[in-house]
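I am still getting used to backbone structure tokens and would like to learn alongside you. Label the sequence line and the structure token line clearly, so we can match residues to local backbone shapes. Would you write everything just below, so we can both look at the same thing?
***
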Amino acid sequence: MRILLTGIPSYLQRTVSGVNGAEVRHRPYFDEVRTKKELIDQVKKIANTGNYLIGEGAAHALRGHDVTYLPFWHLVNSRNSDEVYERLNEEFDICVFASANLLRPGYSADLEAEVFQKLNMPVVIMGIGIQRREGLKENLPPGTLKFLEVLKKKESFFLTRGYFTAEFLREQGMKFVKPTGCPSLFFAPVEMKRSLTALANPELASSQKIAFGGYLGSVADTIVDAHALLKPESVASYVIQDEVVAYNLSLPVDDDLPVYDRASGRITGDTAYKHSEKWQRKHELLVFFDTNQWRSWVSTRDLCFGRRFHGCIIGMQAGVPSLMIAVDDRMREMLEFIGFPYMEAAIWNREADRKAYLSSFLSKIDSQAVIDRYSACETNFRNALAHVGL
């Protein structure tokens, strides 16, 4: 099967230097990331570093086939070239589009509609999900409605992040819709199961080497969590994903000054963000543009904990016990589908003794039941791919 893979990329696409028709040129190196401008530019390229796990999971699921990743920007920039699309339609048998929160009120999928209208091949939309489901039917942008109409008229397959998205797409008249979860869930199944087994341990509540994730620059929740779980002399390790472009975490220095140590992934420059004055522990901020480096670092932690789905999934991919705090319907849809233990933010945030609550929560986890559910979801994902011919 000759597969055109596009959409959300893996970190390997940081080496793409150009595309001509169906041919992709790669540099034999990654861009330098050292200064403030370089760091912010790298985050902007992916919008959220957690997205690299989606692209990596999608590509990994297609191994064994003849797969070429073409950046979506190339398909967009070439949409007025009949010659390019004629070549694409000759070179490939099927298109796989790695996606995430594509169905949401604030995003109009006009460009996706144009691109898929020009591709004369079956299309698989992998990992599609809904963001802000309340009133979605009434507030879905015209471009997204067009996108769905284009795919309704051709051979298309939707592999959704959960049940709610699947139900919504069926209501829109899509023929093949199957809930499969995010492709990042099945990148490292052995390590995921090891992580799930290790999570049922109340002593993890006393861990001092924790990888935290949340929304620094917006709310103080993670700072409060760190104070509740860590001793005064411990260091809080927080992994940034999109805070420097989406949540007002700033680097108040000149663009050309060094702020990042790529060997450790640590931000070394000054930072400024709302609630930073609340810190009562030493803390470090890290950001990773290479998922292998991220997994390597997180493997040194005893626990992954926080409000970021992929910030915890990468811990699980490294075999580290990871527990998520669900903050929105995106996370709930994914977590309820896959059956992973999680805590509701509204409940966790009002606990007076969070360490005791966490210990009690971990002691009640049925690891075998969770692993059985995960294994069934993995089989379901593989079967869905096989049905499509992948």
Remarks:
- The chain is about 40% helix and 20% strand.
- The domain at 189-366 is CATH 3.40.50 (Rossmann fold).
- The two ends are 8 Å apart (CA to CA).
- The longest strand covers residues 2-7.
